[in-house]
Amino acid sequence: MRDGKRTQPIEGLIANEPVPVSVVIAARDEAANIEACVASVRWAREVLVVENDSSDDTVDRARRAGATVFSNPFTTIGAQRNAGIERAASDWVLAVDADERGSFGLGEEIRALIAGSPSHAAYRVPRRNFFLGREVKHGGWASDRPIRLFRSNLRYSASRVHEHVDAAGDVGELRESLEHSTYSSLDDYFEKLDRYSRWWAEDKFETGRRAGPLSVVFKPPVRFVTMYMLRGGWMDGGAGAVLSCLAAASVMAKYARLWARGAKD
């Protein structure tokens, strides 16, 4: 239950025919999340968990929850999802992260969409984002609508950061959302910041992009002002202030790493 709203049960939907979609979940060391994630999309025809080198019991928990699990060597998140898409038995795929949750309403909307001759090959799915247990509604987070539902002939890009579905033409949008718990702790945030900022700098450097010291100085405060002031992050209280500062720190880490790589030339 979030914000006093009762989550609708999924038993009624399960009693019907499964929703003709394959859910693909890329997961590593997600024992704390994977069972609830799989349970939240049990209405799907199949749930595929693509695992790599988990040191906890992610695999066993996913199987107990009813998912089909297989391992794939990790290169990028997009490649992990693509490995799952290759095995999908349905014509439609819903990509879900282990820290996201589906709902009865999302399953019913997807069922109706597929049954009604969809006009697009890919659809954006809104996300309700939670930071340390609190929903974040401002600072640009309300516009978080990644492509997550798409025909199984589409694939993810090779990018290590901000991977996306390569979808040509117009993209539709669903009304129902995924619930996304972004970070379980600040330690989790900083661990991911270190990894993603390194990947981002490496990818940009390989494409020929460079950064000067002024980028490291000026881009972080610009991000803070944009997120906190212009996009209303201040309306999320303390969480909005902390997230805006963290976003600025992320920008600084990315451009500092990119500058450092160029300085070695």
Describe the structure.
The chain is α/β, with parallel strands linked by helices and 265 residues long. It has 2 domains: 11-183, Spore Coat Polysaccharide Biosynthesis Protein SpsA, Chain A (Alpha-Beta Complex), CATH 3.90.550.10; 186-263, no CATH class. The protein is 40% helix and 20% strand. It contains 8 helices and 11 strands. The chain has helices at 11-15, 34-40, 58-64, 77-86, 104-115, 186-206, 213-230, 237-263; strands at residues 19-27, 44-51, 68-71, 92-97, 100-101, 122-124, 127-131, 134-136, 147-151, 172-173, 178-183. The protein has a 7-stranded mixed beta sheet. Strands 5-11-7-8 form a 4-stranded mixed beta sheet. Helix 3 (58-64) links the parallel strand 2 and strand 3. The longest helix is centred in the C-terminal third of the chain and has 27 residues, at 237-263. The chain is globular, with a radius of gyration of 19 Å. The termini are far apart. Mean pLDDT is 91; it is low at 1-12.
CA-atom Rg in angstroms: 19 Å
- In CATH, what is the class of the largest domain? Alpha Beta
Report the CATH superfamily of the largest domain: Spore Coat Polysaccharide Biosynthesis Protein SpsA, Chain A
CATH topology of the largest domain, by name, is Spore Coat Polysaccharide Biosynthesis Protein SpsA, Chain A
Share in helix: 40-55%
Mean pLDDT: 91
CATH architecture of the largest domain: Alpha-Beta Complex
What structural class do helix, strand and pairing data support?
alpha/beta
Order of helices and strands: HEHEHEHEEHEEEEEEHHH
Number of strands: 11
> What is the multimeric organization of the chains shown?
single chain
Assign an overall shape: globular
Overall domain count? 2
Low-confidence stretches: 1-12
Percent of residues in β-strands: 15-25%
Main sheet summary = 7 strands, mixed
Q: How many DSSP H or I helices?
A: 8
